[in-house]
Write a structure and sequence with these properties.
The protein is α+β, with helices and mostly antiparallel strands and 93 residues long. The protein has 3 helices and 3 strands, in the order ααββαβ. The mean pLDDT is 86.
Length: 93
Amino acid sequence: MAFSQSSEIITLLKKQLGLSEDSDLVLKVWDKEFAPMFSFAELVGLKDGHLVIEVLSSVHFQELALRRNEIASKINQYIGKDNVVKGIKIKLK
């Protein structure tokens, strides 16, 4: 029985779960730059280039909807890559 390095196992798990380095970076940027401002919103993940965010009320939904392009642009700028975040999907909980 061969043992694998933990980094190989983590890389394989990330691939199977659809996670990437970009999703890690997006989460860090969200936590640092946007989470304090949008405390009413929960970042669920990054799927096919779209941030998935859940909110509790239609008012919060509307606020994020109005700022979705600004948020995506700022995250891409912060990371230094274009189209990591292609768009934002907002869901009511």
